[in-house]
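Entry 14. Structure prediction run on the chain below.
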Amino acid sequence: MARLNSKAVVSAVVLAAVVLMMAGREATALSCGQVDSKLAPCVSYVTGKAPSISKECCSGVQGLNGLARSSPDRKIACRCLKSLATSIKSINMDKVSGVPGKCGVSVPFPISMSTNCNKYV
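Output returned:
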């Protein structure tokens, strides 16, 4: 029976642990598709087509807030929000910036097209 080098075994175990941790992070990373789907019910309000925020909009905002707990996920969410906002015609950024508060969610960065997602998040 071959003898295993203890340093090689330890190195292999550490490498396997790092690979598993990184795989877990990638699997849980927030995507713009998730951000878009969570906020889709808010579009009619922020474009002036609905007079008030729907329950579905607030549910999406709260769900997104729950998904974006880590700093990297908040940065992704911030970037996705800015990208989404530029893709929506007739968007009212004053209404957009008020949505989290109206839904009972505190956001750690200003909701604005000029927000530096790397600085505030």
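Residues 6-28 form the longest helix (23 residues).
Filed with the rest of this week's runs.
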